[in-house]
Hints:
Elements: H1 5-13, E1 25-29, E2 32-36, H2 38-49, H3 54-76, E3 84-87, H4 95-107, E4 111-114, H5 122-136
Parallel strand pairs: 3-4
Antiparallel strand pairs: 1-2
Amino acid sequence: MIASPGGAIQIHxxxxxxxxxxxxxxxxxxELRIVETLPLIVAVVEDLLAGCAPExxxxxxxxxxxxxxxxxxxxxRRPDGPEAVALSGGTFQNMLLLTQVEELLARRGFRVYRHRxxxxxxxxxxxxxxxxxxxxx
Length: 137
């Protein structure tokens, strides 16, 4: 979506906490929860055709993804289950998304874990594999 790190930094620096998310819906299909992205795509295209600034569209899209992650966590949380969420993987190298998800989850009562010393992407995976290999010898 964002072609250069400079663009991501610019969007992050102009981030407004009140950026309204785009619509999305969940539907149940047996035991599967399916997110319907058509409303999101339609709203993004409408904003772009209406001349909305790409930065505004990007902010709203990020907020939508953050809201989506949080809603998934809320739907999966069981009354007797843990209230901890680990945010990991390359997706959460996106600091805008990470901070939004972290804040929204905390507001919903989740304890949030994230990478602090080890990278969230393949670097962390490689480190884990190296530690495991070392212990297997």
